[in-house]
Design brief:
Layout (H helix, E strand, L loop, with lengths): L5 H8 L8 H5 L3 H8 L1 H14 L3 E6 L3 E6 L8 E4 L8 E7 L2 E7 L8 E6 L5 E5 L10 E9 L4 E9 L4 E7 L4 E8 L6 E2 L6 E3 L3 E13 L2 E13 L4 E6 L13 E9 L2 E11 L2 E9 L8 E7 L2 H4 L4 E6 L6 E7 L10 E7 L4 E4 L14 E6 L9 E2 L14 H7 L3
Antiparallel strand pairs: 1-2, 1-25, 2-3, 4-5, 5-6, 6-7, 7-26, 8-9, 9-10, 10-11, 12-14, 13-14, 14-15, 15-16, 17-18, 18-19, 19-20, 21-22, 22-23, 23-24
Length: about 425
C-alpha cells in the first residue's frame, strides 16, 4: 500500500475490511492498533456490517459446542467452539447484538428455576460469565432478551419472570455487572407470555415478546383469544407502546389464526402466524414490518403451505441467500417429532417456486446431523471485561444419531 496516505487507509479501507482480518492490521503500526482497538471504530464497523448486511455468521448449536459458518459460504468448512467447562451439554441461545451472543445453561442443581448466563464473541472465542440474578420463586416461566443501550454504550440482558399471578422484569447491566428489578406486578395478569420465545431485538435496543390471552373452549382446553406484541426499551428499561398486529390478521376465537413467533428479517421485525386451511393442512404466513412502528406497513411476504416446512409449525427466517431475490434461509424445528428431543434443520425456501430443500450445511463432512438452536451474528472484535477465551478446535466426530434426511422427510403430524 505504498503511496496511499495513512488517513485514507484509516477512514476508507480499514472500516471496510472483514473483522477477522483486522487483528493482522493491528500489528502493522501503532496508529492502526490504537484505531482498531477503539470503541468508536468497533461501533462504526458494526454499523457498517449491519447496514450492508455483510460479515454474518451462522451459529449451529449442538450438544457439544458451536459450529460456526460464514453466512455467504455455507458449504465451506466451519470452525468449532466447544462449550466452556462449567457449561453442560444443553446450552440455549438467547440472542445476539453487535457480534456478542447471550447464552444460558439451565442450572439443574438449584431449587429455584434459573439459568447460568454467559456472553460470548463467537469470532474471537472470548466469553464472560454473567452473575446469576436473585430468584425467590420455585416455579416460573423465564424469558430473556439481549441488546445494546446506545445511550450509555452498555450491553443489557432483560429477564421476564412470570408466575400464575404476576410478572416481573429484571435488567442486567454489563457496565455495572449487576441486576436490578425494574418492574414487578403482583396483580392479576390480563395475558400470558408466549412460552419458549426469547426477546426479538430491533434497532439494537428494542426487545419484543408476544403476549396472549385465552378463552376456555371446553373444560379441558383453552384457545388463543387476542394477542399483542409487547416492546421493552433497553434505553429506558421500560415497557413502551405495543406494536400493532397486521390489520389483515384476525386472532379472534374460531378463526384458527395464531401468532406463532417473532423474528428479524433483513433488520426488520417479522411475525409468523399460523392458520389452518384444512384439518391436516396448515399454512404459516410471514409478515414483515417495512417501517418500524407503523402498523400499516406490515406486508405479508409469503405464505408457506409446503408440508416439509410447516409440518412442525416451528419455522423462523434467517435471511435471503447472497445475491438472490427468491431463496430464503429458514430454520425449521422438529419439536416433538422425535421422542425426547427438539431438533432443527436449515432449509432453503424458494418463494417463487414455493419449494424447499435442505441447506448445504447438512452435507458438510463430520458435522452432526441435528442441531438444537441456530442464530446469526455479525463478525466483530467487541471485547468483554475480564474475558476468557475458548480455543477453536477441530470439530469432534459426530455421535451416531438419526439422519437429518430422515427427520426432514418423515416429520409429519
Amino acid at each position: 500500500m505504498a503511496g496511499v496516505p495513512i488517513a485514507i487507509i484509516e477512514t476508507n479501507i480499514l472500516p471496510r475490511l472483514p473483522a477477522e482480518s483486522l487483528p493482522n492490521f493491528k500489528l502493522v503500526c501503532k496508529s492502526f492498533n490504537v484505531l482498531i482497538s477503539s470503541p468508536e471504530f468497533m461501533e462504526e464497523h458494526c454499523k457498517r456490517s449491519i447496514s450492508t448486511n455483510t460479515g454474518r455468521l451462522v451459529i449451529l448449536n449442538t450438544n457439544r459446542g458451536f459450529h460456526v459458518f460464514n453466512y455467504d459460504s455455507l458449504d465451506s468448512p466451519p470452525f468449532y467452539l466447544p462449550f466452556p467447562d462449567n457449561f453442560s451439554r444443553r446450552v440455549y441461545i438467547f440472542g445476539s447484538s453487535n457480534g456478542l451472543m447471550c447464552l444460558g445453561n439451565r442450572n439443574a442443581g438449584s431449587m429455584y428455576s434459573y439459568y447460568d448466563l454467559m456472553l460470548l464473541n463467537p469470532l474471537t472465542g472470548m466469553f464472560f460469565k454473567v452473575p446469576s440474578p436473585e430468584i425467590t420463586v420455585t416455579w416460573a416461566i423465564e424469558s430473556y432478551g439481549f441488546g445494546f443501550d446506545d445511550w450509555t454504550k452498555d450491553y443489557k440482558i432483560a429477564r421476564i419472570l412470570e408466575t400464575h399471578e404476576s410478572r416481573s422484569v429484571m435488567v442486567y447491566s454489563l457496565h455495572a455487572n449487576s441486576w436490578k428489578t425494574v418492574m414487578s406486578d403482583s396483580h392479576q395478569k390480563s395475558d400470558e407470555l408466549k412460552p419458549h420465545d426469547n426477546g426479538t431485538l430491533i434497532n439494537n435496543h428494542l426487545l419484543h415478546w408476544i403476549f396472549t390471552d385465552y378463552v376456555q373452549d371446553h373444560p379441558n382446553n383453552r384457545i388463543e383469544n387476542n394477542s399483542r406484541i409487547g416492546c421493552f426499551d433497553l434505553r429506558t428499561d421500560e415497557w413502551v407502546d405495543n406494536v400493532g398486529l397486521p390489520h389483515d390478521f384476525d386472532s379472534t376465537p374460531g378463526c384458527y389464526n395464531q401468532c406463532e413467533t417473532l423474528g428479524v428479517f433483513d433488520g426488520r421485525l417479522c411475525l409468523l402466524t399460523r392458520s389452518r386451511l384444512e384439518p391436516h393442512l396448515t399454512c404459516v404466513d410471514m409478515w414483515v414490518m417495512m417501517k418500524y412502528g407503523v402498523r400499516d406497513s406490515w406486508v405479508k411476504l409469503l405464505g408457506v403451505s409446503d408440508s416439509c416446512v410447516t409440518s412442525s409449525l416451528q419455522i423462523c427466517p434467517l435471511g435471503m441467500a447472497y445475491g438472490s431475490k427468491h431463496d430464503m434461509l429458514l430454520v425449521r424445528g422438529t419439536k416433538h417429532t422425535i421422542p425426547g428431543a427438539n431438533r432443527v434443520v436449515l432449509i432453503w425456501y424458494n418463494m417463487h417456486q414455493k419449494k424447499s430443500r435442505l441447506s448445504q450445511v447438512h452435507k458438510v463432512h463430520n458435522l452432526p446431523q441435528q442441531f438444537y438452536d441456530v442464530c446469526t451474528c455479525i463478525k466483530t472484535l467487541v471485547p468483554l471485561p475480564r474475558d476468557t477465551r475458548i480455543r477453536k478446535t477441530p470439530p469432534p466426530l459426530p455421535e451416531k444419531q438419526p439422519s437429518t434426511l430422515e427427520i426432514f422427510s418423515h416429520s409429519r403430524y
